[in-house]
Amino acid sequence: MSRVGVFVCHCGENIARMVDVAKVAEESAKLPGVVLSVDYKYVCSDPGQNMIKEAIREHKLDGVVVAACSPQMHEPTFRAAVVQEKLNPYLCEMANVREHCSWVHLDPEQATQKAIDLVRVMVEKVKKNQELFPIKVPVTKRALVIGGGIAGTQAALDIASGGHEVILVEREPSIGGNMARLSETFPTLDCSQCILTPRMVEVARQPRITLYTYAEVDQVDGFVGNFKVKIRQKAKSVVADLCNGCGDCWNKCPQKKILSEFDAGLGRRTAIYVPFPQAVPNTPVIDRDTCLKFLKDKCGVCEKVCTRNAIDYTMQDEIIEVEVGAIVVATGYDLFSVGREQPNERWKGYGEYNYDAYPDIINGLQFERLLSASGPTQGEVRRPSDGKEPKSVVFIACVGSRDPEKGLEYCSKICCMYTAKHAMLYKHKVHDGQPYVFYMDIRAGGKNYEEFVRRAIEDDGVLYIRGRVSKIYQDGDQLVVVGADTLSDSQVEIRADMVVLATAMVPHRDAYELAQKVGMACGAEGFYSEAHPKLRPVETNTAGIYLAGACQAPKDIPDAVAQASAAASKVQVLFSSDELEREPIIAEVNEATCVHCRNCIRVCPYSAITDKEIRDKQGNLIKMVAEVNKGLCMGCGTCVAACPSKSIQLAGFNDEQVFAEITALGSG
Amino acid sequence: MSDAPPGYGAKEMSNEVKTDETLAATEKEWQPRIIAFVCNWCTYAGADLAGTSRIVYEPHVRIIRLPCSGRIDVSFIIKAFEQGADGVIVSGCHPGDCHYTEGNYHARRRFAGFRDLLEFCGFDMSRVIFSWVSAAEGIKWANLVNEAVAKIREVGPFKEFQKLLA
After folding, report:
1. pTM of the model
2. What contacts A638, CB < 8 A, 6 or more positions away?
């Protein structure tokens, strides 16, 4: 027979004003198994908690029901209190008679009756409750960082500085990401590479960081603290240990006309290449799609000129298996592609602004490369078509962003700032040039951001026109930009030598695929979903997986770095103990009755349930059953409702408990 | 016992009290009995919000808290009716908002099939109410309960089912 204690809280006047608490206590005392039922002014107060503790001692209670506020509020309080008296915390339940009763009803009689019912439900439940113990899982104190842009670099450096091993995986031949491609950064105009490359070098020097470039994550298994990751090291065709980065190979490579991805298609590279001079590691890779050796089995010049014998055409992709305890995903962003060719069915035929038609209409990253001292023009602003210096440039903001009809619904956040920066830098380089900016609104929220935009307008004479561009067409060697000026309510026509589109940020083109592999969620636009938009912005819903940078939402550099450091500190919190404790509200399979229909395996949102073979001593297969991975199960109970043979149960919410609750309402 | 606190929900108060009074006069013995199966993260929190916002609603509902709408077994609904409930509310996070990513999708699919089965059996479907209520929708929760109570009042006690059991 159970020995349950019921404690009815007045919550000052909050409950007692509407609910006859004395009557609730009196009625609850009559329930079978209840040995003590009292009401008290503030059960959550120190004396209130002491009262519970004394009662557990005196009456040898094996169950406690507190009728008070919402369990979201004080369940941890009361569970912590009963633990002090050696009562298992999961034998303490709360009946919510404040939020769900006294605060929302006006008839005292009805409210009191409801409170009595709610207490009875919890009494019947607690009688069926079992002791549950936190699940302990060991933690592998090594982190995987996916993506070597500024966010991934920052996270890796922070975790490594904290004393833990880090594996950094980057799919391009060098780390650096999009930030390495930028010219100067707003609002301080310091050179992007000057602040980034020292950090990249630090990554290479940091002994606790293992760097895999030209590599991709192939598969992720396991759970928080215990991930097993397969990394595909793509064949570089160059032995990194032998190569000294002298550059003989790429200087001699005859394939010189390949469009450079790093230069956003404005520059050229060779088939054996490093993406940019400051690359880390400074080891070239052979692009097998363009190398003559691989296409036609000819050439082989690089092998001949290499004095270190570092070229290896027979190199194969390699799968590297690592075990990590936490994963930081920092896959960054791509630019929304403005042309008619769209990667995504949804944006098919965006084709606005004639981006495909005229070479002098370029996107934001291309303009960054034109401004960059290491870019295809060595930092001189020259237009792609004829290499002339443009004397008037039109910048168009919100290209793709804030356009639910044809583009993306969201604001890409950084375009207002980088457009102001572009216009300003253009003016700094072409003193007699005139920059124009078409904008919808200026969103310059950030430290020194508004001042920066004002500087562009007031000091550098950038002409801001509030309105959208309706048409761009060519006239002679110039582009005519037709648009609206909504402030003067007039049509404007500007003859421009070049047009720069402030294209929206979209998640990396393979973001969804990676989400599938890693087991995390994407929002509607493909950005990774954080666990809580406000309170858990760097965690994902999958324990042990964290987000950093623009893969979660459009971000500028300071925000990306801040989030990366936050993710790194979350990882270090996880790594601060050898074992981690998880709530034991998880599913468990009854192997005796499981018929291996695999319904649970199919419905589990966390892939936490797998097949298990049961064999006898001789190793003969007796039967197959389902098995729950305790580290992965989050305790939603979807499997329980899907099980036709009722062979899987959720601890804390098993069928017996729920039926007891329902039956408690029936007898009233 | 003190009087109802002044100053909040005055409008609802006058309305509710009136309906309660009129009903109490006509059908004093019987009050609707509704059991609500709700998920912990959205609907339960939404009902908490109704409380903290002091949104007054009908008292004839009893909440049973589960982790996720995906945990709500169809047998719970049958069991509730068996135990004399006149109506059942099933509610969880909105599609796309599930705390467990997709538990509510499984729930939705399960209840779509279950609905068809109940309808086929000639079950009065107005007694089973499915709705999504987010943690921010205290008002929606209150309205949901009020509407459910109104609906159950309309169709009266669930005598048919009780007769079947007897």
Report:
1. 0.75
2. A603, A604, A605, B68, B70, B71, B100, B102, B103, B106, B107
